[in-house]
User: What shape does this take?
Amino acid sequence: MTAPIILSKSMDLAVIQGAFTQNVVPTYGRFPLAFTHGSGSYVWDVSGRKYLDLGGGIAVNSLGHAHPEITDALVEQSRKLLHVSNLYYTESQARLAEQISGLIAPGKVFFCNSGAEANEGLYKVARKFGHDQGRFEILTALNSFHGRTLGGISATGQDKVKKGFEPMVPGFRHVPYNDLEAMRSAISPATAAILIEGIQGETGITPATPEYLLGLRALCDEKNLLLLIDSVQCGHFRTGCFQSYQRILEGVPGCESFLPDGISMAKSLGGGFPIGAFWLRNPHGGLLTAGTHGTTFGGNPLGCAVALRILDVIHRDHLHQNARELGGWIKDQLSQLVHNHPTVLKTVRGFGLMIGLELQPHIPAFRHDDKSVAIQFINKLHDLGVLTIPSGTNIVRLLPALNLKKSEAEEGLEKIASLLPSLLQ
Ligand SMILES: *Cc1c(COP(=O)(O)O)cnc(C)c1O
Assistant: This one.
């Protein structure tokens, strides 16, 4: 047996990387950065260097780092009760379910621990829904992302996540996103549900169009299919509304009656504490009866206390407004940069604080390296002290905390702008 590594302040990046190489399953391509602590939208690495975090832990840190009210909720709840199991009732789970339905529509909520697991629940709901007619198939979109479990990679419309893990779970087929006719023609007698992201996140921030959402609802009503929305990344007020479809459909005729049958969520729900959930519209909540689904940790008092506190802070501090207004401003500023640097930047997409900056596929300064342009661009931003998230080969995502400040957004934009002239050679 080797001596345990003592994690101390003096453990530098190379030592940590060495320990990862030896001990951690190498499923991630990690950037050469190791962080020790954070505060708001800033994080510090092991060498004491400060970074502006515009990636938000991939849309998770809804209130930024070390938010004192999240800490209070964790401490207060942990002094009372961490966990009792779902054999019993707790007030915090009841209140969180009530709040989530209050933000969507009357329905029922199931709690779990991650986004993939929330989607797994939706697959089971779809199977149960179609079971008596022999229907089991779920149609999803190309370029979607639904998580890394076996069901998740089967549902995901990207070959790269499936490679080497075949055979896939049967019953998933993929069609082009935002293409209503493709969806209509893909429906078979075995189809039970359609699952899409409100805004495709992992493949470059592509929102569903209003016509697509309304068309899918009508199609599902016509064919008796469930309309399921994976809201793991685009939900929780990131777009300015609790749900991205609420934002996308704002002011669109017919939007008042739009409601999906099921919605999965995770990421920002717990602000960094692992919690996932899915909501089902009435009466579909009744499809999963006692003994048909479960998870040990789901909806435990600690996770629910944190999620409840986050919702309180979002409402009290009008963070949905902040996401909408500051996000809109950032997008406008980035559009200006796109306009001024068309040989480096291609376009900007998204709603609120879910923004995708698409780079040109061939940027002169990046031609000598085989790393994708997104990774090279992000590495340059790291040198300037800014964290962002890659998406595909040439998209940079901004998924910052919902309480990002204007001054912080300005700092990030200045640093992005300062990089552009040097990329032309
Ligand atoms: C992140 C993500 C998931 C998977 O969530 P995990 O918590 O990583 O399991 C599923 N769907 C979407 C849209 C996501 O962005």
The chain has two domains: 31-66+319-424, 69-316. The CA atoms of residues 110 and 278 lie 5 Å apart. Residues 114-116, 119, 145-147, 197, 201-202, 230, 232-233, 266-267 surround pyridoxal-5'-phosphate (CB under 6 Å).
